[in-house]
Amino acid sequence: MINYQEEIKHFKPSLDVDNIEDAIAGMNLTDMNDLMMQLVRNAAESGARGQGERRTPAEEDAAFDRKVNES
Length: 71
Hints:
mainly alpha
């Protein structure tokens, strides 16, 4: 039978996990919430411009890049 108390005494955490956690926490990653907020902003801006005045895909990309770089 496994003696869990004895096994816990021998446990040593992996240093790689700690390093990875620090690296991930330090990164500024775009998550789903950021993407959804950008879509909502784009839709609001497009609606304000009128039906026939939508931005080109290149303009959309440039606007998105500006917003991402601002944060």
